[in-house]
Give the backbone structure.
Amino acid sequence: MRGHILVVDDEPNIRALLAGVLEDEGMEVSTACDAVQARKQLAARQPDLMLLDVQLPGQDGLGLLRSLQAEGGLCPVVMMSGHGTIATAVEATRLGAIDFIEKPIQVERLLVSLANGLRLRQLTEENARLQSELGRDTGLLGSGAAMEQLRQEIARAAGSEARVLITGENGTGKELIARALHAGSPRADRPFIKVNCAAIPSELLESELFGHERGAFTGAVSRRVGKFERAQGGTLLLDEIGDMNATTQAKLLRVLEDGELERLGGTGVITLDVRIFASTNRDLEALRASGDFREDLYHRVKVVPIHAPALRDHVEDIPELARHFLEHFCRTAGRPTMHFTAEALRRLQTHDWPGNVRELRNLVERVMIMAPGEAVEEPFVESLLPGAAACREPVGLGLADYLLHHEKSYIGKALTCHGGNLAAAARELGLDRANLHRRLKKLGMSD
């Protein structure tokens, strides 16, 4: 057998005996006499397996196991005890130990347990590698029930030619879902084109989608190929389709029904071979009922509905997401590896995350930049969460300046929540886009 084993026991003779046996079997051995030394060894190098005694000075073995499991990423653990009881063994197993060995230790029993543990470690690493590849391919991280269901829905829908309507709040990864659908489809090696219907002024959106000929309108000095043509053979994502005006909705419906288009100002018909995905953070059903979204277009785009869950609906994935983002940002910046403490991760799980995964990702990037050490503690995380700013009210301001301060803060939060999307932020604030733009200029928040 090969592997790196960390032996944690307060008795020097036990540590020496186990180290000798394991080294004779070809394994590398590190030792620690208590929980403090064990943590130092773990911080220096993650072993393949840990042999952990229950009875330790200070924090006992079960307490150490409990805290390490909460922090995540722990190697397989085999517990040892010279005073073992059934209750202790059950508690150790509940906390994640893979085996419980009584002292005096029988060498053959120990070696079988270690072989099983090292095999588990190998399988865990292989599974993590495959999950990481899947995460890189789709960007859809998380192993909870909600994300697993989402991946299953994507797998079922990807291979068809059906149109897909992706719904969900801002920051939930609707574009990632669309890209995952495209990557799993027969069109994967063809173009994936996205157009944000909310970000383009309504008078320009038609030209952006369908293209135009030279002279089609004032300022059309040359031919323009639209997004539909650029996506030929591939996939077109109509992002924020709920913000599309009635005129463009009617023209889009005709293109979807006929499978062909004419550029603005043109006479030639262009036959299309494009799969359509649409996404929105709005309630299209309500817009359809109110007459703001065409019912016939609604049914055209909603062949297969997929919903992106809000982060508050799968908080069990927050530790995995936070660790992934922190590792990514540290690696990208060339920084030493950092980690969240168990308390910090629990605090992240209790935040409501109105901006969803995008907000979490942005916060973790700030953590990487601003954290004072490699261990990210709960108080530091708390200081970066939006509620912390409310505790630092400005003093000594006149009423007008005070109101401007809070208006700037409120608008800034809306923009952050919606990823800088002016149309979506304006809608939440009860303003039209032009009015919001004027407010941003007045507040010095516009370039």
